[in-house]
Amino acid sequence: MRAVRRFTVRASLPESLAGLGALATNLRWTWHPPTRDLFASMDAELFNAIRDPLRMLTALPPERLSELAVDEDFLRRTREAAADLERYLTEPRWYQRRTDEGLPGAVAYFSMEFGVTEALPNYSGGLGVLAGDHLKAASDLGVPMIGAGLLYRSGYFRQALSLDGWQVEHYPVIDPNAFPLELVTDGGRPVLVEVAMPGGRELRAQIWRARVGRIPLLLLDSDIEDNDEDLRPVTDRLYGGDADHRIRQEILAGIGGFRAVRKFCELTGHPQPLVFHTNEGHAGFLGLERAREIIQADGLAFDEALPAVRAGTVFTTHTPVSAGIDRFPVDLVQRYFTDGRLVPDVDPRRVLALGAEDNPGLFNMAHMGLRLAQRANGVSQLHGRVTRRMFSRLWPGFDEDEVPISSITNGVHGPTWVARELSALLGGNHDEFGHEGRTPGSSLRDGVTDEQLWGLRRELREKLVGEVRRRVRAAWVQRGASALELGWTDRVFDPDVLTVGFARRVPTYKRLTLMLRDPDRLRALLLDERRPIQIVIGGKSHPADDNGKQLIQQIVRFVDDPAVRHRIVFLPDYDMSMARYLYRGCDVWLNNPVRPLEACGTSGMKSALNGGLNLSIRDGWWEECYDGSNGWAIPTADGITDPLRRDDLEAAALYDLLGQQIAPLYYDNDAAGVPSGWLSMVWHTLETLGPFVQASRMVREYVDSGYLPASRTVAAATGDGYRGALSLADYRTKLEVAWPRVRIFDSELLYDHAERLVVGTEVTVRARIDLAGLDPSEVDVQAVVGQVGDADELTETSTVPMRGDGIGAFAASLTLPRAGSVGYTVRVLPKHDLLASPAELARVVLA
After folding, report:
1. PANTHER family given for it (predicted)?
2. Which of 475, 607, 827, 840 has the greatest CB tally within 10 Å of its CB?
């Protein structure tokens, strides 16, 4: 029989244990070992099996709860844990100790997925885990953030394998009441947000709140009886469905998410956010709702509201290729916006213009995100360069390095990912490496020997081996094998063998099967009698990506070979729980994408924090962090256009590194049985990469270069009756008329012809310019000097402001900065106090 309805009954706790409820429902326990220890002490075997305090309270027999309710030692520890949580939630932290004027009272962070813990399966991969780490680090730093997204009733899929190695998806049904969530209510009734749908209908969603330390995370859920049957499944699953389903999700995430944040703040007294951060373009429609709010509340026109909207928006893109951007058919977008009900008083034509791209039939969510945000960034230095190139068409006339998209390299939340044994050995909190947790001049190596570190690394590797054996056996049983024929799984892997990890999503560009380019060379490395290696692999392919599934099948067929299956494994159902074993137990973390298609790739950061060494293509974060002593860089076959040839060359380089450098160093033990050369690289990695790869560093950068300047610009734009925004709107209107008529008639370079031009010579650039009625204070006239190539293109440029005489003549003196072929030009740019970048308005007049 099947149930007609599913619901969850939570445990009724004795009054003396009431504090456990707050500890179980605040997800700080996911990165706070003492809280986990408290729950583990209730029933260690049960806790190790489910790793979820809330489920633990439901699963414990009532008689055990009754025992604990009168256990004075347990009650004391519960009180102490509850008091510690309360201190954490209320005490001033890094953000509160800052004295900068203009720090926002709240920041809203929007993402389509949040990977906070496997106990709340609302994520698929790196984007969601990054969002979860962002919230955790913001909580630790005291940044007043509110997260907003969707709650998926099926979560992300569970992965299994068929007998022939094909990925099989299973979508477990989620009851929100069974998770560490609470329904947002008002007067006992669920708070609903509504967004208009075509045909006069409404899509309604209730709001679930997760507590991520100090951060409220609001998740919208459309599976309610108030909705029509075809609207209830809008939040059914992550990244599923057709374009119509997808745009409904993104409308709900952006417009509905904004309305949910507003209602939550009104109900709870939480400060209303001034700054809105969109993690990818999925929630970009929120900018339209913010404009609608200003238009209706303050009587501004759309163009007058737009500067205030842009000032308070930070947009982060994770996409290094155009194909990865969400695009919708224009007629589909029109269907949702044309009747004017979704965002009243916002002209649908303006909506379409925000998402316009080269293909007039498509609406580009990233283009809308960039046009509605004054500050945008990629997620590594290399990705920033790639992104500026990818979107340079939106800023014609500007060099790629002037495109107003910066970079903030991703980070990972140390307390979530670092083995507690390692933190204990090193005598501190990994999250504070390089910050206030270390005294000046101190070293991680103080008081710790190589033997101790090597012993711990072996202990972590041994735990990984145990988990690998358990999961391999379970996977074979699931594929239909008999327990009687699985005795060999007890001999899979060896805690004394060099262990390489490779685990991530499986799109083709990540090249899961690069290691299989020469199967014989791989077998030789795995089975080497003196210096063997073992490889653990995990990863999921998108359900609609058959190419990715074929890559998984190729790997599975190779690892099924009895000759090698004790040295290489594929573990199905890669998630955060599995990831922790891999990051902590692997000696080497492998990453071999096609450069430059990896935006950042944070998995290697998590391995590095645990003393793992990276073996990676110089892509994403590794491009800026590899220093020759913290791992290895796989050479790239740049310039090779044949992808198969490129794969052959880079795979050969991978085999050479593993066999000729990595394995020999790993097995080169001293008299004490310790590979001192290897450990010197481990120590160097912990010391130098430790501070940089932290999410705390990342969030600090977002505060300093994103949230704080955005908040100040919002104040300037909205203060005194939106004086700044109105001024900028008037200025843009003036530019619309004048800019096409701005002309640079001529320019000249003046210097003493009696002297030779050498580095350091002072010269003068003059130009005659018609500003078409613009005041000189409304423009920035620049002389640009730099190296000049065969096509007269300027590179390595520097700019000098030119001063006008009031009648159209401008001049500047400059010192020649370099030898060789040097050139100059003159240009005119818009200038206004509320512009964050000279390129912001995508206007430039060149000589």
Report:
1. GLYCOGEN PHOSPHORYLASE
2. 607
Handedness of CA 69, 75, 81, 87 (dihedral sign): positive
List, for the chain, all residue ranges whose pLDDT scores fall below the cut of 50: 429-437
Sequence-ordered list of residues with C-beta below 8 angstroms from that of 639, at least 6 positions apart, any chain: none
Q: Which residue has the tokens 């206004």?
A: 832
Residue 630 and residue 613 in contact, taking contact as beta carbons nearer than 8 Å:
yes
Q: How many residues make up the chain in this entry? A: 847
> At 569, phi and psi to the nearest 5?
-135, 150
- How far is residue 227's CA from residue 252's CA, in Å, rounded to a whole number? 13
In this prediction, residue 39 carries a pLDDT of: 96
What is the value of pTM for the model shown? Answer: 0.95
The sign of the CA dihedral 92, 94, 98, 102 is negative
pLDDT at position 436, please? Answer: 41
Cα separation of 828 and 808, whole Å?
12
Assign 700 to helix, strand or coil: helix
Pair of tokens at residue 550: 């074929």
Reference 695, options 442, 491, 431; nearest CA is: 431
Residue 312 amino acid letter: G
Q: What's the burial of 468, exposed, middle or buried (CB within 10 Å: 0-12/13-18/19+)?
A: buried
* Class of domain 742-846 (CATH, top level): mainly beta
Coil, strand, or helix at residue 593? coil
The pairing of strands 779-788 and 794-801 is antiparallel
Residue 787 is predicted with a pLDDT of 87
- Domain 105-411+706-717 bears CATH identifier 3.40.50.2000: yes
Please name the residue that has the structure tokens 């374009």.
243
Q: Nearest to residue 277, comparing CAs of 104, 422, 110, 146? A: 110
Domains 449-691 and 742-846 are alike in CATH topology: no
- pLDDT given for residue 440 in this prediction: 53
Q: How far is CA 198 from CA 224, 233, 336, 337, in A?
A: 19, 16, 6, 8
Domain positions in the chain: 15-90, 105-411+706-717, 449-691, 742-846
Nearest to 597 by CA among 379, 365, 376: 379
pLDDT tens, position by position, 631-688: 999 999 988 989 999 999 999 999 999 999 999 999 999 999 999 999 999 999 999 9
Distances (CA, A) of 331 to 198, 283, 592: 13, 20, 40
Q: Which residues contact 80 (CB under 8 A, 6 or more apart)?
A: none
CB-CB neighbours of 822 under 10 Å: 18
Quick one: how far is CA 365 from the chain centroid?
A: 17
